[in-house]
Sequence to fold (763 residues):
Amino acid sequence: MKRLYLPLILFIFLSTVCCNGQNKLPNPSESSSIDVKVDSILALMTLKEKAGQMLNIGLPALLQGGYWDSKERAVFDQEKFKKLLIEYAVGSIHNTPGYPAEREDWYQIVKKIQDSAMQKTRLGIPVLYGIDNIHGANYVNGSVMFPHQIGIAATWNTELSKRSAEITSYESRAASLPWNFNPNADVAMNPLWGRISESFGEDPYLISEMTAAYVQGSQQKGLQDSKSTAVCLKHFIGYGAGRNGKDRANALIPENSLRQYFLPPFEKAIKNGAMGVMISSNAVNGIPCHINSFYINDILKGELGFKGVVISDFSDVDLLVSGHLSAKDKREATKMAVNAGLDLLMNPFDADVVDYIVDLVEKGEISMARIDDAVTRILRLKFYLNLFEVPYNNPKEYPNFASESHIEANYQTASEAITLLKNANNILPLLSTKKVLVTGYSANSINILNGAWSRSFLGQDTKFNDPSKLTILEAIKKQVGTANIEFVEGTDYLEDINANEAVEKAKNVDYIVVCVGEIPASEKPSDINELELPKTQQELVKKLSKLGKPIILVMVQGRPRIIREIEPLVDAIVMAYLPGDEGGRAISDVLFGDINPSGKLPYTYPKYSGNYLTYYHKKTDIRDVNWGFDGFYPQFEFGFGLSYTTFKYSNLKISKDTLLSNEELKISIDIQNTGDREGKEVVQVYLKDLIATVSPDSKKLVRFTKIELNPNETKTINFMLTSKDLESIGIHNTWITEDGEFEVQVGGNPQELVKEIFYFKNN
Fold:
């Protein structure tokens, strides 16, 4: 059959090509012209072509060599290329060539793919390329690598989340990568979970606000703009609640908890224009998420009104057979996943799911309506991204790639994320004229600062590091001079290297900076069996503490590792999370006072591995052995973080004593900088329902803002609340607000909240 070149199809609609407006997010209700185009293409497609659009293949499957073979350049295998890209006309591709390609290399890779798809297939439909650019365009060599999401959450600054997304989009598009498998909207409820670093923490409201800001930054000029990328929210749903904390572990989530805690971040992101959702690899209540029609069809596509593309995670159709044991073979797994609402199947290695889909439709086991819905969603996203007109991007049109302004934004984000957890006797900031011993596992490593998803999947390969970036040690040397610095490795992650030598060197210095951390890892390699910081790293601190010299503990880690035994031995604790390429410089600047720390914990930091609760626990959760209610004793609470200055909260006012359901409640509070230097403060607003039929949470975050105050300066901050902020999930799994008393709590640290009570009454 003669090939129908797509521009001929589009000629009819030339006057209305994808012009929703450059300054707004795509809105399907405003996209009738796109819907017409999609319908026209759909009418021309064969069943196999439709099934091909539903396949997401891994790039290595198109290259010479085995899928997992190490590669230094991308060379297409002509036979594989022809089969997958031309004969099967795959709709989407993901993954890297096996190394962090330069943006010019990416351009050539994507150009080859798109030219072939648009010129050598019957309908000329472009490919949708997606990639895990988790903390910057991390698979594009030379790009800016931001702190991981947990660090961005610790800034409590939505503008920084938005800016990081904007830069990531720009630098991704410089490499012709238009679809980002990010942000992560998971609620991290188990501290063992290795992917906490990729999340915005434990609080649904904080996650919602940070996720929405990320979506806005990614798509702020509209998806047709060549500097915007479409996002793909991860992972729907309950990935961060695995009951044993392991990757892909089963989660037990009753429907009321699902709606109270896990759905709101996705709902907020979808309302802000998110056009992709990736399904979680795990099971919830024993049902694999990939075949949970209630979650995908009823809630995601139904209740939340999601009009974008639902994609599986890596090889998770296979996992339904080999792991979940929910399907006898891959054909059955494909049937179950597609009928459950999957639109795009990430089947990395081959095209067998295409053949299965064709067979299943022909035999009436999958309806053509379900296929048409999936393909419509995929084509619609391609039009939103303007891929039919601009399938790839010239790197030369992106002069700000890795620019000084992008680097400075990265540095600011890393700086605002750093959280000061202890500062006994104001030992920090350090004097630059004193002698310092720097030691510990994370002291001299760019890889540990960056964590996983850094040029390579695990981020452990040192050959991809940027030599211009500074480790903690190098940054401190630059700060105070080499003559004032002693360095001894001390330990590896688990093994003693030369801890005794570190003790000897420490005898001749004024300060000891011990840098601890985790091995860069994600997914299954990030699984651990105990939450305590490795004993060897703790022993280094214990040995050094016997000298009686000031010790500053710097923690470079995504999840909270238990430090109960060594916390009393150190004078200061600095939590850096996984701060990215500018992390060394930011940490040093905080230690020596060039930066005043302003980060706040985005999760509860446990003191005991057997006593972990989120801050929004129930009162009965903290019943102690004496039958009291004193069983919540974390090392550090959610929202906690110190500064080099001090802040005073006063004059809390609420606009009315009784709030009706159709009214707003105004809250005002005065914050004064009572110290001697300027500082940034996160003003947190919580609500506590004092009595409710469903046992209320201890409190819930409902508003926050970050402000900057000069010494002795006072600002009055106002917040507006509505009855919706008071809602919780009731006994019938719907949002309700019962008549009764509520407590407003406002402050910058959980131990120092100012409180007022008001009454709510339904009209």
Q: What stands out?
A: The CA atoms of residues 97 and 746 lie 50 Å apart. The chain has three domains: 6-397, 418-591, 647-761. The mean pLDDT is 94. The domain at 647-761 is CATH 2.60.40.10 (Immunoglobulin-like).
